[in-house]
Each structure stands twice: as C-alpha cells, then as structure tokens.
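This week, think about what follows.
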Amino acid sequence: MTDSLADGTRMGAVELLVDDLDTMLAFYRDTLALDLLRVDGETHVLGRGGVETVTLTPAKGLPRFNRSGAGLFHTAVLFDSRAGLASAVARVAQAAPGAYTGSADHYVSQAFYFDDPEGNGVELYWDRPRAEWPRDSAGRPIMGTEYIDANGFLGTHLTESEFVKPSAAASVGHVHLQVGDIPTAKDFYVGTLGFEVVFDMGSALFISAGGYHHHVGLNTWNSQGAGPRAASLGLGTMDIVLPTPDDVGALRDRLAFRGAQVADDGRTLTVADPWGSKVRVRAED
C-alpha cells in the first residue's frame, strides 16, 4: 500500500453552493471569462479548454458561509501565462473594483486576490517555471510574500488581444481551506489522503503531491477551534484528479486502512475531512 499521492496529481473543479446563480455566472463566466462547459440540471460547470474549474450549484435558503468557521479560504485559478493572468485581473478590476483584496509575489508565483459576489475568496495566479523556484536544503520550494505593484504588473503584461478574447489556459492550481486546527488537518490530508508537507508555519500548512509548491493550503487564521461545518453557501466539494485508476485504487485501500467513511461509486471516491468539507477523488479521463 502506497502512502503518498502519485506524481501528476492535480486539483480539479471546486463546487460552490450559490444563492444567486445569475450573479455568480456573471462573475465567473462573463468577468473571469470561463467557458460554460455544460449544465447538469441546475448545476453549471465552467472552465477553459475543456478543463473544469468552477461548478456553481444553486442552494437558495442556505445561510452565508461563516468566515470564522471551517470551509473555503479561496479557490486559486492558475493561468499559464502572465498575459492571461493580467487579462483576468483587469477584467475583474473593471467589472467589480470593490472585489480586490490584495496581491503578492510568493517567489514561486505571482498572485492577486479577490472576493466573488457571495464572498468566496478567489486567487488568480501565475507560476514561475519550477527551475526558478527557490528551494530549501531538502529541495522543497520556498514561499514568501513580497509586494506586487498591481498597476505596474498590468502595464507590463496586459495585452489587448488577451483582454478582448481570453485564451490562456485556466485551471484550479490549488485550494486553500480554513480548518479548526493544523494537527488534525495534517493527520487527514497528509496521513490519510497522502499529500506531502511542503511548509508548516504553525498556523498554516502547505501540502502537495509530486513536488508542487502546494495543491492544498490549510490555515487557522480566522477559524482556530472551529467545529464541524453547518450547512451553508460556499464550498460544496473540491476535486482531486489522480493520474490513473490504479492510483485511485491505492487511495481506496489507504482510506479503508485508516477507517475513513467513503462514498465509492466505482469511479470516484468522496470523503469528508474532519470538519465536513467534502473531497472527491477520480482518475484522469
């Protein structure tokens, strides 16, 4: 039985439970310029280049997500070029200037942060080539936070062609969650799911598969001591995509060994973390 997720593991779509579908579609489809890939009943699946990024599921009547509880901190959308990132940032700045919450150079990436119309955190970012990432003595990526001049970034990298007709690949690069405590989160996401620790800063943990800087971030900055999640808008499920069905089988065995409660339809595994956030795992199509 293998203890770690396979190289080539990536994040899949993040499902958001939403109150106002039209407003949320206007943000993710019209402003971020994600394509509407398909509609399953009332659920709208958006992405680019056929890659699923965000799923919007109507859930009227649910309360807003409690930002001091466990759940979604942000969905991080990764662009394959600085021009693509600049275009997305400019489109949000033009359509929803009040959504901007900050920016940072993290050494491995450049990132801009927003809130969507229902208060879900959104990171838009671009990765530097892996060969340029600073690393510690064990070879792990080093991340930090330095100031980015947003206007300067746009002035350097924004192109009219990408702004008018966005074409850069956009996918979920990582998902950052709020949790009640880091040791419990580490036991589940590392000990059970099989991610590897990249950086543990005490109040936050960054984990990945295959040497990436992080596929999942876990923090207690707003949520220390939080208990199980109550039903609310915000995070529904987050998807993890493994390279092969055999990798899913290995995880199935590890979950059984750990005594996890798993919904298994033969293709996907769905398991809840200790706070009730749902993780769905499948193989590449």
The helical segments are 21-31, 82-95, 150-157, 160-164, 182-192, 245-257. Residues 192 and 254 are 7 Å apart (CA to CA). The chain has a mean pLDDT of 97.
